[in-house]
Amino acid sequence: MWEKIITCDSTYDGLFYTAVKTTKIYCRPSCKSRKPKKVNVDFYYEIMEVEKAGFRACKRCQPEVEHSHHTELVKKVTSFLINHYNQKLTLQDIADHVGISPFHLERIFKQETTETPRAYLEKIRVDKATHLLKSTDLTNLEICYEVGFQSTSSFYKSFRHLTKCSPSQYRSQEG
What we know:
Elements: H1 2-6, E1 17-20, E2 25-27, E3 41-44, H2 47-52, E4 56-57, H3 68-84, H4 91-98, H5 102-113, H6 117-135, H7 140-146, H8 152-163, H9 167-174
Parallel strand pairs: 2-4
Antiparallel strand pairs: 1-2, 1-3
Protein backbone atom coordinates (compact mmCIF):
# COMPACT_ATOMS: atom_id res chain seq x y z
CA MET A 1 0.00 0.00 0.00
CA TRP A 2 2.90 2.33 0.75
CA GLU A 3 4.16 1.94 -2.84
CA LYS A 4 0.71 2.87 -4.16
CA ILE A 5 0.62 6.17 -2.28
CA ILE A 6 4.21 7.01 -3.28
CA THR A 7 3.29 6.56 -6.96
CA CYS A 8 -0.13 8.30 -6.50
CA ASP A 9 -1.87 5.28 -8.06
CA SER A 10 -5.52 6.24 -8.65
CA THR A 11 -6.56 2.64 -9.43
CA TYR A 12 -6.58 2.01 -5.67
CA ASP A 13 -8.78 5.01 -4.80
CA GLY A 14 -11.72 3.79 -2.74
CA LEU A 15 -10.04 0.48 -1.92
CA PHE A 16 -8.04 1.88 0.98
CA TYR A 17 -7.20 5.19 2.66
CA THR A 18 -4.00 6.54 4.14
CA ALA A 19 -4.25 8.23 7.52
CA VAL A 20 -1.43 10.44 8.78
CA LYS A 21 -1.15 10.23 12.57
CA THR A 22 0.68 13.56 12.96
CA THR A 23 -1.85 15.66 11.01
CA LYS A 24 -4.98 13.55 11.73
CA ILE A 25 -5.85 13.74 7.98
CA TYR A 26 -6.76 10.87 5.67
CA CYS A 27 -6.34 10.73 1.90
CA ARG A 28 -6.91 8.68 -1.24
CA PRO A 29 -3.88 6.70 -2.50
CA SER A 30 -3.69 9.09 -5.48
CA CYS A 31 -3.48 12.29 -3.41
CA LYS A 32 -0.86 14.68 -4.77
CA SER A 33 -0.10 16.25 -1.37
CA ARG A 34 3.38 15.98 0.11
CA LYS A 35 4.06 12.44 1.27
CA PRO A 36 4.34 11.82 5.03
CA LYS A 37 6.96 9.73 6.73
CA LYS A 38 6.10 6.05 6.49
CA VAL A 39 6.12 5.63 10.30
CA ASN A 40 3.34 8.24 10.60
CA VAL A 41 0.92 6.44 8.28
CA ASP A 42 -1.87 3.99 9.06
CA PHE A 43 -4.02 2.31 6.42
CA TYR A 44 -7.79 1.86 6.56
CA TYR A 45 -10.18 0.05 4.22
CA GLU A 46 -13.34 1.98 5.10
CA ILE A 47 -14.06 5.69 5.44
CA MET A 48 -16.23 5.03 8.49
CA GLU A 49 -13.30 3.25 10.17
CA VAL A 50 -10.83 6.07 9.52
CA GLU A 51 -13.27 8.80 10.61
CA LYS A 52 -14.19 6.82 13.75
CA ALA A 53 -10.46 6.77 14.55
CA GLY A 54 -10.54 10.60 14.60
CA PHE A 55 -9.14 11.52 11.18
CA ARG A 56 -10.62 14.20 8.93
CA ALA A 57 -10.76 14.16 5.12
CA CYS A 58 -8.02 15.83 3.09
CA LYS A 59 -9.23 19.02 1.46
CA ARG A 60 -7.07 18.42 -1.60
CA CYS A 61 -8.13 14.90 -2.70
CA GLN A 62 -11.53 14.85 -0.95
CA PRO A 63 -11.64 11.12 -0.22
CA GLU A 64 -15.12 11.41 1.31
CA VAL A 65 -16.53 12.52 -2.07
CA GLU A 66 -17.23 9.48 -4.18
CA HIS A 67 -16.15 9.36 -7.79
CA SER A 68 -19.81 9.17 -8.70
CA HIS A 69 -19.94 12.90 -7.94
CA HIS A 70 -17.75 13.50 -10.98
CA THR A 71 -19.68 10.91 -12.98
CA GLU A 72 -22.94 12.73 -12.22
CA LEU A 73 -21.38 16.05 -13.17
CA VAL A 74 -20.16 14.66 -16.50
CA LYS A 75 -23.63 13.18 -17.17
CA LYS A 76 -25.23 16.58 -16.51
CA VAL A 77 -22.75 18.31 -18.82
CA THR A 78 -23.10 15.78 -21.66
CA SER A 79 -26.89 15.87 -21.37
CA PHE A 80 -26.83 19.67 -21.49
CA LEU A 81 -24.55 19.62 -24.56
CA ILE A 82 -26.72 17.06 -26.35
CA ASN A 83 -29.86 19.09 -25.68
CA HIS A 84 -28.35 22.48 -26.54
CA TYR A 85 -25.77 21.63 -29.22
CA ASN A 86 -27.38 23.91 -31.80
CA GLN A 87 -27.15 27.01 -29.58
CA LYS A 88 -24.21 29.34 -29.11
CA LEU A 89 -22.55 27.93 -25.97
CA THR A 90 -19.58 29.16 -24.01
CA LEU A 91 -17.71 27.28 -21.31
CA GLN A 92 -19.24 29.78 -18.86
CA ASP A 93 -22.78 28.81 -20.02
CA ILE A 94 -22.03 25.14 -19.42
CA ALA A 95 -20.37 25.85 -16.05
CA ASP A 96 -23.35 27.98 -14.97
CA HIS A 97 -25.69 25.10 -15.83
CA VAL A 98 -23.88 22.67 -13.51
CA GLY A 99 -22.97 25.27 -10.88
CA ILE A 100 -19.17 25.21 -10.86
CA SER A 101 -16.40 27.43 -12.23
CA PRO A 102 -15.40 27.07 -15.89
CA PHE A 103 -11.84 26.12 -14.88
CA HIS A 104 -13.05 23.40 -12.50
CA LEU A 105 -15.56 22.13 -15.08
CA GLU A 106 -12.96 21.83 -17.81
CA ARG A 107 -10.48 20.08 -15.49
CA ILE A 108 -13.01 17.51 -14.20
CA PHE A 109 -14.58 16.91 -17.62
CA LYS A 110 -11.19 16.33 -19.23
CA GLN A 111 -10.08 14.11 -16.34
CA GLU A 112 -13.19 11.94 -16.71
CA THR A 113 -13.60 11.91 -20.52
CA THR A 114 -10.10 12.78 -21.82
CA GLU A 115 -11.53 15.68 -23.82
CA THR A 116 -12.73 19.21 -23.19
CA PRO A 117 -16.42 20.17 -23.18
CA ARG A 118 -15.74 22.16 -26.39
CA ALA A 119 -14.28 19.10 -28.16
CA TYR A 120 -17.23 16.99 -26.99
CA LEU A 121 -19.66 19.62 -28.29
CA GLU A 122 -17.88 19.66 -31.65
CA LYS A 123 -18.26 15.88 -31.91
CA ILE A 124 -21.99 16.17 -31.25
CA ARG A 125 -22.35 18.92 -33.84
CA VAL A 126 -20.39 17.04 -36.50
CA ASP A 127 -22.39 13.89 -35.75
CA LYS A 128 -25.64 15.84 -36.25
CA ALA A 129 -24.21 17.34 -39.44
CA THR A 130 -23.36 13.91 -40.87
CA HIS A 131 -26.93 12.80 -40.17
CA LEU A 132 -28.34 15.89 -41.94
CA LEU A 133 -25.97 15.44 -44.89
CA LYS A 134 -27.25 11.88 -45.33
CA SER A 135 -30.93 12.50 -44.71
CA THR A 136 -31.76 16.01 -46.03
CA ASP A 137 -31.22 18.28 -49.01
CA LEU A 138 -30.07 21.17 -46.82
CA THR A 139 -27.00 23.01 -48.10
CA ASN A 140 -23.71 22.79 -46.24
CA LEU A 141 -24.23 26.39 -45.09
CA GLU A 142 -27.71 25.62 -43.74
CA ILE A 143 -26.39 22.54 -41.94
CA CYS A 144 -23.49 24.55 -40.50
CA TYR A 145 -25.86 26.94 -38.72
CA GLU A 146 -28.50 24.29 -38.00
CA VAL A 147 -26.07 22.27 -35.88
CA GLY A 148 -24.81 25.30 -33.95
CA PHE A 149 -21.55 26.35 -35.57
CA GLN A 150 -21.10 30.11 -35.54
CA SER A 151 -18.92 30.25 -38.67
CA THR A 152 -18.42 28.17 -41.79
CA SER A 153 -14.66 28.06 -41.24
CA SER A 154 -15.03 26.41 -37.82
CA PHE A 155 -17.64 24.04 -39.26
CA TYR A 156 -15.40 22.91 -42.13
CA LYS A 157 -12.33 22.68 -39.89
CA SER A 158 -14.11 20.56 -37.24
CA PHE A 159 -15.88 18.44 -39.84
CA ARG A 160 -12.65 17.65 -41.70
CA HIS A 161 -10.78 16.99 -38.44
CA LEU A 162 -13.35 14.45 -37.24
CA THR A 163 -14.40 12.78 -40.50
CA LYS A 164 -11.20 13.18 -42.57
CA CYS A 165 -13.21 14.70 -45.44
CA SER A 166 -15.26 17.78 -46.30
CA PRO A 167 -19.06 17.88 -45.88
CA SER A 168 -19.52 17.71 -49.67
CA GLN A 169 -17.19 14.71 -49.94
CA TYR A 170 -19.05 13.05 -47.06
CA ARG A 171 -22.40 13.58 -48.75
CA SER A 172 -21.17 12.17 -52.06
CA GLN A 173 -19.66 9.11 -50.33
CA GLU A 174 -22.91 8.42 -48.54
CA GLY A 175 -25.10 9.08 -51.56
